[in-house]
Amino acid sequence: MSDQLLFARSPYIAVAVSLLMLIIGYLRFGRDRAKLSEQFSEISQAFRRPALWQAGLLLVVAGHLALIFLPGRLLEFNDVRSGSIGLEGITIVAGFLVLTGLLQVLWRMARRLTTAETVYVTILVLSAVSGLLTGILYRWSTSWSPVTLTPYVHSLWRLDPAIDLIAGMPFLVRLHILSAFALVALFPLTRLSVIVHLPVHLILSPLLAGIVSLLGRLRDALAARGRRAVQTASAWWEAEYE
Questions:
Q1: pTM, 2 dp
Q2: Average pLDDT, whole number, for the chain?
Q3: How far apart are the first and last CA of the chain?
C-alpha cells in the first residue's frame, strides 16, 4: 500500500468509522443504563490490577500527550543530558510495564473477550511492542519525535498530512503509528466504548427527558386547545341553526 493511503487517508477513515460506529452503538445499546454500568464494572475490573501497570499506562499516556501538545518543553528538557537520559529510561520502563500489564489482561480476560476485543487487545500489544522496541533500538526518541512525529500529527489536524515526515521512518515507528489508527477504528467494537457511551448517556438522558416532557406538555396543550375549538364550533353551530 502507498504512504498516501496509509498515512494520509487512513487516519481520517479511522476517525470517521469510529464516530459512526459509536453513534450506531449508542442508538442500539447505549441508552440501557444498567448494561452500561455492567460494562463499566467489567472494564474497571480488567484494568484495576496491578498498580505498576496503571502507573506505566499513566506515564505512557502522559508522554504521548506531552509529545503532541508540549514538544517545545520536551526539547528544552532534553537539552540537559541528565534530563534526556532520565526521560529515555522512564519511557522504556513505562513501555515495559504497559506491555506486561496488557499481557496479564489478555491472560485473565481471554475467555471473556469477544473476537473484536481479542483483536483489539492484540493490536494494543503490538503497539506496545513496537513502541518499546522503538525506544530501545532508536535512542533519544524524546528528542527526534517532537521534530518529526509531532509535526505529522499537527498536519493531520490541519487536514494537510505531511507524509514526507513519515516516509523515511523505520518500520517499527510506522507500525506504531498504523496500530494507533487501527485502535481508533476498532474502539467502538469493544466494551471500552462504554467510556464514551456512559458519559454521553449521563449528559443526554436529562436533556432528552426534558425534551420529551416539553413535547408531552406541548401535545397536551395543543390537544386541549383543539378540544376547546371543537366545543366552540359545536356551540356556534347549534346556536346558528337551531
A1: 0.78
A2: 80
A3: 87
